[in-house]
Amino acid sequence: MIRIASVLRTVMFVLALGLIQTAFTQHAFAHAVLLGSTPKANEMVAAPPKELILNFNENVGPIFFKVLDRSGKEVGAPGEIKLDGNNLILPLGAELPNGTYVLTYRVISADTHPVGATFGFSVGEPMADMSQMNASAEPASTAWTWAVAANRWVLYAAMLLAAGSALFTLLVPTPASVTASTFSLGKGGAIAAAVTYVLAVGFGGAEMVLGGAGALFAGDTWARGLQSTLTPSAAVGIPAMLVLLYAYAGGVEKPKVGALTVGAVAAVGSFLVTGHAATAPPVWMMATMVAIHLFCAAFWFGALYPLYKTTQVNDAAAAGAVMHKFSVWAIYSVALIVLSGIVITWVQVQTPGNMLSTVYGNGLLRKLFLVAVILALAAYNKFVLTPALEKGDAAGAQKIRRTIRIEFGIYVLILGAAMTLTLTTPPRAIVDQSAAKAAMQMEGFKTTLKTQDYSADLEVTPAKAGENMIMVTVKGNDGQVLTLADLEITAALPAAGIADVLIKGQNVGNGMWHVVFKEMIIPGDWTLKIDAFVTDFDKVGFETPVTIK
After folding, report:
1. Which pLDDT score, from 0 to 100, does residue 437 have?
2. Alpha-carbon distance 257 to 300, whole Å?
3. Do residues 10 and 95 both lie within one domain?
4. Are residues 410 and 387 in the same domain?
5. Which positions ≥6 away from 233 have C-beta within 8 Å?
6. 448 and 342, same structural domain?
7. What DSSP string describes 204-243?
8. What is the per-residue pLDDT for 436?
9. Suppose 542 and one of 265, 281, 518, 530 were both cysteines; which one would form an S-S bond, judging by CB atoms 3.0 to 4.6 Å apart?
10. Helix (H) or strand (E) segment spanning residue 429
11. What pLDDT does 110 receive?
């Protein structure tokens, strides 16, 4: 018999190791990435926006989305937040006066992790110093983040144990006493998993709302959690555990094959509606790969205890026969784990270099190292110890129990590594973010034109064929913004025979002049001439080429 105290000490030891591992690897907690916004961060817009837009790399759920003035007061008479694909839209019912504002948001990403940020923009005048504004930055993590992580770790282990015990029973026949012990352990896993499914919703909601110590007892906490993908996961997972409990409560002589099968399949299915791996595009492929990965992992994890028990209650030859049956399925299991792992890694990591240069890649390397160790132990069991058992070598049973204990400890660490990866931004999201930043940097045209006594800041947005917005601010040689009497822009595209298209500027205050040029519908190298009337009789001219794509 395995002593309960010994098992508990082993579990506590490996969990402690895993928590230390998590503490050193949990650097980032965001998976949904902001690709762009309207207005952009630190942008100065000429006219008050009628709505604020956030564009993400995946679907998100809003927790809050606000625009604040410099005192931190919510302004703009916001309407109901709208979802349009990956866009989050906040309509404004009141016009924002000229000034500097803060856009702040917090959303739930597809993998249930809350992300948020705060940045400024200005209307009709240059931005004020953000450091003087009453706005706080989004915290990287809260105490609830660690509660979510710990609960997720327990959920992983409990679900895999409950489902894995069922899969092992279905695939590898064992003596009745071993099956009874397997059912008892699977029952404990199912109960623990059912509880942690519920706690996942509450802990997740508390993290989303940045709740305090008593947040778990607040209605808003559970409301937020119920709005996330944690809810469909629990809605599938809890019934799965109940089905498995029903199966484990039956007799071991004639196991309830249907209930064991349905329970195991539904248990794995509960993990396919949430998490950044299963929800990554293309979803059909990634969900399939994650399902294969989980089925094989559950079978392997669920096999450890019954194999250990088999070597205790059976003679060496009988135990060797069970080990041989397991090893046949294990070969297929290992092949599928490797195949699905390669696909998941390829989608999440993108390039081999990201394995070394990103936190996610480093965490994945640690997990792969642990997997390699456990596979080496499994190979030792199959090719050395199992043949010895089949030949009746009683000493082989003790050696196998020793390696299984080591495998169990390593497996718990692997679950810890897997949990850590769910809290770390995958490189695919970082690539999306980098591409978005590069695209935003390339969008539009900006330059400063100078004469001996004056300068003009010119911005053409988006500098693409079609309607463009032109913003001009003229300054003196002391850098002070000038209040002009008038401003005119003459546009020409010599290659297309377009010349002297005159557009009158509109004064939007604080020295800024705004022009909407609807006729810029042909791409090419345009020429813009700016006539800035310092007074009714004093004019200064600027000229620049602008490439319209």
Report:
1. 53
2. 19
3. no
4. yes
5. 197, 200, 270, 271, 273, 274
6. no
7. HHHHHTT--TTGGG-HHHHHHHHTSTHHHHHHHHHHHHHH
8. 53
9. 530
10. helix 427-442
11. 65
Query: How far is Cα 25 from Cα 19, in angstroms, rounded to an integer?
Result: 10
Both tokens of 269, joined, read 């299915």
What is the mean pLDDT of each successive set of 10 residues along the chain, which is 549 residues long?
41 41 38 80 82 85 85 88 87 90 82 76 75 49 80 94 95 91 94 96 85 85 84 94 94 88 94 78 86 94 93 86 90 92 87 84 90 90 87 84 91 87 72 53 76 88 82 88 90 86 82 82 90 89 90
pLDDT recorded at residue 159: 96
Q: Are 316 and 397 in contact (CB under 8 A)?
A: yes
Query: Cβ-count burial of 344 within 10 angstroms (0-12 exposed, 13-18 middle, 19+ buried)?
Result: buried
pTM (2 decimals)? 0.69
pLDDT for position 160:
95
Please indicate, yes or no, whether residues 358 and 492 belong to a single structural domain of this protein. Answer: no
Establish if 499 belongs to a structural domain: yes
Do 146 and 261 lie in one domain? The reply is: yes
Per-residue model confidence (pLDDT) at position 535: 87
Q: Which residue has the tokens 């279905």?
A: 170
The CA-based dihedral angle spanning residues 60, 64, 67, 70, taken in that order and rounded to the nearest 10 degrees: -130
Report yes or no on 153 lying in a domain: yes
Distance separating alpha carbons of residues 527 and 501, to the nearest angstrom: 10
Instruction: Give the CB-side neighbour count of residue 213, counting CA atoms within 13 A.
Output: 0
Residue 547's φ and ψ, nearest 5 degrees, are: -85, 120
For the packed helices 394-422 and 283-313, what is the interaxial angle rounded to 10 degrees? 150
Q: How far is CA 268 from CA 155, 231, 408, in A?
A: 12, 15, 20
Pick from 479, 484, 547, 472: which is nearest to 516 by CA? 472
Last residue of a domain, one of 417, 442, 467: 442
Assigned token pair, 20: 């230390």
- Cα–Cα distance for residue pair 283/269, rounded to 1 Å: 14
Residues 130 and 145 in one domain: no
Euclidean distance between CA atoms 98 and 38, whole angstroms: 17
Total structural domains in the chain? 4
Phi, psi of 103 (to 5 degrees): -100, 125
Cα four-point dihedral sign 387, 391, 392, 395? negative
User: What pLDDT, on a 0 to 100 scale, did the predictor assign at position 193?
Assistant: 96
252 and 116 in a common domain:
no
Short-list 57, 75, 79, CA closest to 67: 75
Q: What is the DSSP string of 246-313?
A: HHHTS-SSS--HHHHHHHHHHHHHTTSSSSTTTTSSSHHHHHHHHHHHHHHHHHHHHHHHHHHHHHHH
d(CA 181, CA 192): 17
Residue 306 preceded by cis peptide, ω within 30? no
Answer yes or no: is 106 within a domain. yes
What integer pLDDT is reported at residue 151 of this predicted model? 92
Identify whether 171 is part of a domain. no
| Residues 253, 320 share a domain | no
Residue 140 has phi, psi (to 5 degrees) of -65, -35
Torsion sign (Cα): 172, 174, 176, 182: negative
Determine the 3-state secondary structure of 39 from DSSP.
coil
